[in-house]
Specification:
Elements: E1 9-20, E2 26-35, E3 40-45, E4 54-59, E5 62-73, E6 114-120, E7 125-133, E8 150-158, E9 161-173, E10 176-187, E11 197-206, E12 211-217, E13 223-224, E14 232-233, E15 242-243, E16 257-258, E17 260-267, E18 278-282, H1 289-308
Antiparallel strand pairs: 1-2, 3-4, 3-18, 4-5, 5-6, 6-7, 7-8, 8-9, 9-10, 10-11, 12-17, 13-16, 14-15, 17-18
Organism: Salix viminalis
Pfam family, one: DUF1005
InterPro entries: DUF1005 (IPR010410)
Amino acid sequence: MRKSESRPSVLHNEWIDIGENKKGEPTRFYLCVRVEPDPRYVFQFGGDSECSPQVFQVQGSVRQAVFTCKFSLRNPGDRNLVSMPSMTEPAPSRNWLPSLGADKDPSAKERKGWSITIHDLSGSPVAMASMVTPFVPSPGSNHVSRSNPGAWLILRPTQGTWKPWGRLEAWRELNNANALGYRFELLHDSVSASPSTTTLVHSVINAKNGGKFTIDMTNSVSTPVSSPHSSCDLGSGPGSGSWSGSELGPGLFSPFVHTGFVMQSSVSNGHDQSRKTEVEIGVQHVNCTEDAAAFVALAAAVDLSVDACKSFTRKLRKELRQSQSFVV
């Protein structure tokens, strides 16, 4: 994985006249303005998240495939929404006989069971976003409310299983049906019964016109994060190889802190098919494939939340709808 190119530059480096002293002599001071680089990885989805697209790394006019996505819907009868998906992909069920209610759309009452898995080019799963709290309309309305938001877990692979890294909640704002509210929290390792969390961003996006989902800690208090021991492989490019998480520098799971620009992803309104989700990630927060993949999974969850929070009077596109069927 190659970094985006960015070099420091000097905008001003000379004396400046600021007036005269009491003797009429010019008063000057020396000013040097230096702009430090803010290198970022840039990724672009090849299609809508629910269509299981490829994800490309973009450098100028060059696009190189680095990830593949697999969107899936869990069985509507599965009530265990908080169970962790297995690291291996389950075999597809065989629908032998459609039930009498096959034409019904369960998503008209609730939207649940969505997940998207990010794979590297070898086919190994490197991140996942899994809907763990259903998106349901609040009583007396057709919208998901802030008092009862839907939620996703963002997961990373650790020692053959999935480990939660972050939690995303989303809803529609009460006074503005076009405003998608969201909150993203980091989940920390904790010896206590309940894991500690830190909110990194809590804001809104205009779901009608589209917008940006941004995590920027430049003017915020830094957030400590934990460091699990997981293998990382940057693939081709400088610094490639495998290390344990404890040997890496500052990144997603390092013992250091989140500082500066972290990530930004574009959020489409769902109508302009030419606009693909684009993700920018601060280079200092990526030390391995799993780091970048976790942010890509988060961007996909934000994108899918726009659909999950649509009015329940509206019909979702077919990729997001589940039909009742008799499975044996």
